[in-house]
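In this supplementary section we document a worked example of the pipeline. Step one takes a protein sequence of length 225 as its only input; no multiple sequence alignment statistics are reported here. Step two produces a three-dimensional model, which step three serialises into structure tokens for compact storage. The input and output of this example are shown verbatim.
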Amino acid sequence: MYDVYMNFFEGFPDIFLEDVIIETQSGISLAPSSLDLVGVEPYLYNIDERAEILKEALQPVKDAYDHILIDTPPSMGQFVINGLVAADKTIVTLDSGIFALKGIEALTTIFDDIEEHVGGKIAADMAILTRWGNGSHPVTPIDEIAAFIKRMLYGKAAEGDGASEAERLDAFEHEVKKLFPSVYAVPFDGSVSEAQHHGMPLSAYAPESAAARTYREITEAIRNW
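The serialised model returned by step three reads:
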């Protein structure tokens, strides 16, 4: 993808999206990226049409696929803007951290800025809450240290943490449902990290896992768009 973006600048090779697509073991076509992509962003600020580069790059191949998924970095930069402008629908993934809702506020600001400067209405069509569920997250050494400190400071009062965490998650999900027309919660599942380690989609690595079943529901919803 570094080469695809840099193709738009004078002095760089003519490499198009169709030139970099590879077939993966799962049968999914992939336009791969690397850390080199970070070097593209400074160039993007030098051109007026920087928000529409990915949309233009996709034109020659968009009719060859039933669906094209655009995965953007988590930072609020030019690649996110390019992805939003190029996409027909927008899916936002959120973890259960306390800063996730703040991220939605920043994303809403980006939506408004794109509408003002590029044109076209952009809205979040779906939210996916990942690694969801009370008590299902594996206990790490950091978690154990935190629990020990709480016991030292608060004594038995810390024993109610599980209940309060469940209440926080319920409140979080309630707030997200106010902002998105469609919300799915994917339970924490160790198969997800295992699939990533093997370089395989979860649907191929562990199709009957709890997370994979939820993702199938999400897939069916997307097919009906």
